[in-house]
Each structure stands twice: as structure tokens, then as C-alpha cells.
Amino acid sequence: MPLPPTVLVVTAPDDLGADLVIRQIQARGVAIHRIDPADLARPGALRMTGVSDGEPLRFTIEDDHRSTLSQSVVSVFWWHPGLPGGWGQRESRAILEDFLYGLDGTLWVNHPLRAQAARPGPRQLHLASSLGLRTPPALFTNDPDRAAAFATEQGGRVVCKTLTAHPDRFVQARLVSPEEILAGADHVRQTMCYLQRPVDKTHDIRLTVIGDRMFPCKVTADGAFDWRAAPENDLGFEAVSASLPLTQKVQKLMQTLGLEYAALDFAVDQGGTWWFLEANPAGQFGFVETSTGMVISRAIADHLVQTALATHVYTPGGGHRASSGAPWQRGSADV
């Protein structure tokens, strides 16, 4: 008897984005198992048993509500699980991840290792530029003299950005002058700095991508340079369209980065050119969906269910395998 297809949702217990997607999956009648990896180190909260014995890796995950066999997992929605809090959680998380990475033919949104390699930074900017997306010149340095010279070359000011989250506060992108850079020379020497030529923009674009579907959203911020730091009442969101040449380049970037999902940020200049800033493999989408009505969570659910099932066949003995190039026959209880 074939095992029922299951979407494994790995997330934090209070994540609203995961909630939106789970509601959509439930409407499709596909089994869902939502887990918080931290529960593996909380006695009795989440129980897992896995076997490595020369045969394909296999495991069982169960809690007080459901039990899931690895053979039934067709897709994994890896969405902002909390960071491990201690050694027990780190050890448990490492074993969970390794078993999940061993799943055969499973669709990930997104695979953590691919998302890590695809994070915003110099490589991502280089790939975007090589594929034809417009990218502002950028400099990465801990040399204050080089940084100040770059700011002078770009017209007397540059955008100072960060690639990682600060543990204590939100660090917004801001404009800095050569004088400010030299005044803070000691800080520059202690940390690599990311500087970029500013775009004389009219507005921003948040382009959410899942599979081959794209959701472009115009963002206005009432004069704020970094819309993420603007008061909520000053923000405006509007569904817009994107040109076919641009979306084709974005699709190539997604494929090159190995991503199924990303939230891409663009700045639009006075002439209407979209300047690529970054692609966040785990960028939030809930605020865009709520503000515009675009069905992003539905598209993610479709991808986790329909796309995943399209790449699997079910066998009379139970379980599934990837259908692409499979040497076995389709079972009588196909899904």
C-alpha cells in the first residue's frame, strides 16, 4: 500500500509565513507534518529514529499528533527554523539535517546548503551581472583609504550595507561620504564593509519568485532610503508587471543559484531601469501578500505539492522514488 505523500514543514512555532503556506496545503488534502527542530532536545516533544545500515537512509519522525516515515516525504518547506540554543539542540539538529539531506528525489524550498551558497554577496552580484541584470558597482573592503576613494569615485557618497543580521539590532542601508568613512577608519579596519553606488531611484521593487511564478510588487517609502526601516504607515505596496526579458534573466539566476524560492530586491531609476540589489533565499512574503492580495502562499503550496508529486511515482510496495530516469514501473496506485 503506497504511503500518503507528506510535506514536511521545518520552521519555528510562531512563523506567520509558514502558517499561510500550511493553510493552503491543507486545502489540497495533502498530509503535512510541521516540526520545530528544537523540539528534538525537549524530552518527549518530538521523537525521531533513523537508520543507516547500507540500505537507503530512512527515519521516522513523530509527535503527539502524527507520525511520518521518510519514504512518504515528497517535499520539505525549510522556513526560518530557530537557531539551536545549546549543544543538545545543535547535535539533534545536525542529525536531523543529515537524514533530510539524504532523502531521495525530494523537492526543497529551499535546500539549506543551496540557500547558504546562494546568499547575497559578491558572488551573487557577479552572477546577476553575467546574466544581464543591471547591478550597481560595489566594493568589499576593510581598507578605509580604498573605501573613501571608492566613495569619491561614485560621486561623493555610497550605500553602506550589511549581508548578515546583527545579533542586537536592525542595521539599515545608509548613505555615507568619504569623510564619514575616514572618521570611522578604526571600525572599517575591524570589519569587511560592503559599499555600493546608490541608484537615483523613484521606487523599489520586491520580486517574489517561486518555481516559474513571479510576483512583482512596487514599494514606495515616502522618501526613506531603505524602505525596510520606514514606518509602516509610510509604505505603499502595489502589484505591477515585469518585462519578459527581465523575468527570463531572473529565471536563469534562480536556476544558477539552485533556488526554488527567493525574494529579489530592485531599485528603479528615473529612466525605468530595474537595478538588481540582491536575492534573499528566505525573504519574507507575508507583508506583500497581505498588502496586494497576490497569492504567493498559494503558489508556494502548489510548488510543494503539485511540482513535488509530478516528479515522483508510487510503487506497489509503498513509498516513492524520483520519476526522472527511474528504472521501475509506475504502480497501480499512482498519485
What is the strand and helix layout of this fold?
Elements: E1 6-11, H1 16-26, E2 31-35, E3 47-51, E4 58-62, E5 67-69, E6 73-79, H2 87-101, E7 107-109, H3 112-117, H4 122-130, E8 138-141, H5 144-153, E9 158-161, E10 174-176, H6 178-183, H7 185-190, E11 193-196, E12 201-210, E13 213-220, E14 236-239, H8 244-257, E15 261-269, E16 274-280, H9 286-292, H10 296-310, E17 312-314, E18 320-322
Parallel strand pairs: 1-2, 1-6, 6-7
Antiparallel strand pairs: 3-4, 4-5, 8-11, 9-10, 9-11, 12-13, 12-15, 13-14, 15-16, 17-18
Helix pairs in contact: 1-10
Features of this protein?
335 residues, alpha+beta, 5-stranded antiparallel beta sheet, 4-stranded parallel beta sheet, 10 helices, 18 strands, globular, disordered C terminus
**Strand content range:** 25-35%
> How does the overall form come out from the CA principal axes?
globular
Number of helices: 10
Low-confidence stretches: 314-335
What string gives the helices and strands in order? Answer: EHEEEEEHEHHEHEEHHEEEEHEEHHEE
What's the number of extended β-strand segments? 18
Mean pLDDT: 89
What is the first-to-last residue Cα distance? Answer: 12 Å
| SS-based class | alpha+beta
Roughly how much helix do the residues carry, as a percent range? 25-40%
Briefly, what is this?
This protein has ten helices and 18 strands. It has 335 residues and is of the alpha+beta class. α1 crosses α10.
